[in-house]
Amino acid sequence: MDIALAPETLARWQFGITTVYHFLFVPLTISLAALVAVLQTAWVRTEKEKYLKATKFWGKLFLINIAMGVVTGIVQEFQFGMNWSDYSRFVGDVFGAPLAFEALIAFFFESTFIGLWIFGWDKLPKKIHLACIWMVSIGTVLSAYFILAANSWMQHPVGYRINPESGRAELTDFWLVLTQNTTLAQVFHTLTAAVLTGGAFMVGIAAFHLMRGKHIPVMRTSLRLGLVAVVIGGALVAVSGDVLAKVMFKQQPMKMAAAEALWDGEERAPFSVFAYGDVDKGHNTVAIEVPGLLSFLADSDFDSFVPGINDVNKAEQEKYGPGDYRPNIPVAYWGFRWMIGFGMASFAIGAVGLWLTRRKFLLPAALRTGEDERPHLVLFRTPLSPRLTRLYWLAGVWTLGFPLIASSWGWIFTEMGRQPWVVYGVLRTRDAVSPGVSQAEVLTSMAVFTALYAVLAVIEVKLLVKYVKAGPPELTEADLNPPTRIGGDGTSDRPMAFSY
Amino acid sequence: MQLHDVWFVLIAVLWTGYFFLEGFDFGIGVLTKLLARGRPEKRVLINTIGPVWDGNEVWLLTAGGATFAAFPDWYATLFSGFYLPFLAILVCLIIRGVAFEYRHKRAEERWQANWEHAIFWTSLLPAFLWGMVFANIVRGVEIDRNKEYVGGVLDLFNGYSLLGGLVTLALFTFHGAVFAALKTVGDIRDRARALATRLGVATAVAAVGFLGWTQAAHGDGTSLVALAVAVAALAGALAANIAGREGWSFALSGVTIAAAVAMLFLTLFPNVMPSSLDDAWSLTVTNAASSPYTLKIMTWCAAVATPVVLLYQGWTYWVFRKRIGTQHIADAH
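^ inputs. structure came back:
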């Protein structure tokens, strides 16, 4: 069969497309839930109207995103069975449990309280309504935790044994699956990346309005909140990335060697800045490197030995039998770089912005601005020129997409870097597909999902643009007078505060 | 009773929860064309399930996840075997979820009308397909010695499964009409009740045919009891609806769904997916199950989490207990 249309290839493409697409919405949902909760908390505590306006504005964008996250998540739950039935049979005993936990503990939480939050403005007292968005936020984090525990088990299987009778993986220590260092590092890395993503989303949109001088009170507040999220998220995503890399150097040396295009192991291994290589011959033809840095990243020691692609390939051939155990090296190498590059670009833009818009006690008195004035961007003691100011606002707008690109590449890197394994060292991807599903069926489903997702992407982006441009809503009497009783006050015929 | 038997029951409970809750959601979706006159009434119907449909759908994800964890082979054979029906269901659920959230976000007539068509079709189709899927499971499909489904997609279309599809479609639409009568106020409430009576009669005819067929082909003493409960509850729901006891009618249409699911699972046990090729190749609660350790952990999780879920999900229904009518629907977007 033509390799390009082999069911394994098609199933992998489908999984890649649907998962990367799903994961555009996931980090946004995780972080916007928390950021909206922060804004609503500020509203409840201070009763300043700008916080309520901000809550409503970002809440709307959050809902447009979470709708897509939820519906594309349904596919994730079922495509293991549809396209990867041999995988499901082999690992269901281990892998199914965190998925079931995720549904039972996190999904119910998230989806029930999101319904209460959306429709609850005129049905719930202020503080209970606020509690609902915090519940949603907790739900999103729990959900991330369980699914990352499942994924970490694919990267580094622990707490299981192979049943000699059935030949399948069986869970022996669930606690270990939930708490192994791979899981903890991945959760840390993914959640901090989410904070960066949501922060950049806020910065981008706030910068867009501030550049045009619109909706200033709400957007000033949003910009600062977004910048703080970008800087905290960006700094921690770097720290957690370092932690995760050190874990992977030990557990998946092939992936990290591929990430660096390090063909042959060496002491004082260099960090590659740019490489162009020959995969068949197994060496680089062009390489720009920083000596010793890779050893330091892998093991906190500039002189450590780091094994190369050829070494690991040989070791795995001895362990698992003849074959090619190398992933797609260019994808791993460049995926790793795009991830870091876009993530850190966003962090840099955020850090610069946080300084440029710093609080008034750090500013000369003449440059301080009121809540309804556009902030000056002040480098040291003078504001930036109009041209540079505009340039910064544009950079702010552009940063909106950077973390999304970074996390997409991060997943492509970590999943493709694990190949040819689906469960590292235990099950090969080619042995995981559904044997009974025909090429025509997989092709159909891949085509259907791709077309559907493309159409939905257009619809979603257009809606986002519409609501971004519209800016924060005007507040009504009902907004400012929330009910005091659960279920709403009185039996009035007032229209609902929110209806579909 | 061993743990894999417990999980067989729990999976049946999860599907019951799903069909009970998303059953009326699907019904409401179908009724937007059958019952509502004009957009304000359509919106009244959609808003009766607005705050809850998403939570209701999680019962499906939980049923899927629990099947994956407790019976990996069942999950693998079912979803890879019934590939195209599940693809259709997934596509419907994706479009449907987005339709609820996005329909009101633009004022243009075409935008809203398109999403309304989408809500109708993506509610109708899964309501039918779920019945078809479960009828095929009960009937038995071509499963080989390796637990693989070896039939074609056309084998899933047969008289029994098509009747099963019609029954779930009719039953969910009836359940939805009863729910609409319970949750709305004004003219639409009266018409919902009147329509529910007609739908209930149609459902009764189809359901008695399907469940009778099931009993004759696969049933035993216990399934006969479930069948009797289902039929009695359906008759009760119909009578309560005619008498204007909307709460009772809704509870009893729910009991009908629960009893029908129970009956299908009782006829299956101890199989989970019988093979029509050879009895020895059937998937059973023993040969498709996970290890006792996994089942034990899952049991703890379910025992702790399920009551909490029921509590806060139930609380949601209480928060949104007030009936709604066209006067409650704002024109603003």
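The first strand of chain A starts at residue 160 and ends at 162. Chain A touches chain B through 79 residues (CB under 8 Å).
thumbs up if we can close this ticket
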